[in-house]
Design a protein that fits this description.
- The chain is an alpha+beta fold.
- The protein has one domain.
- It has 3 helices and 3 strands; from the N terminus they run E-E-E-H-H-H.
- It starts with 7 loop residues before the first strand and ends in a 13-residue tail after the last helix.
Length: about 90
């Protein structure tokens, strides 16, 4: 998928392949869901609400968890720094 992010293949089992580097990663089901939503340009607020509903999280925890995940993606160069969504 290439929607402004690096060209990535993400399957339903959490396998992620980065076409640019040839590296592979494995995400849990939550990480897979979030990355797919990012690649589909789903609004961040919608992703957060879905996580809150699915995992019974309060807003602060959902925002913190998403920020941590985005930083992990960035550190792996799966998101460029300017592509990391912000939870405003």
């Amino acid at each position: 998928m290439d929607n402004g992010y690096r060209k990535l293949y993400v399957n339903n089992n959490g396998f992620v392949f980065d076409y640019q580097t040839g590296l592979t990663y494995h995400l849990n089901s939550t990480g897979t869901f979030v990355l797919r939503q990012l690649l589909e340009k789903t609004p961040l607020a919608e992703i957060r609400r879905t996580l809150q509903d699915e995992y019974h999280l309060d807003s602060r925890t959902a925002i913190s968890d998403l920020d941590d995940f985005f930083q992990q993606l960035s550190s792996l160069n799966l998101l460029k720094p300017e592509e990391v969504p912000t939870n405003d």
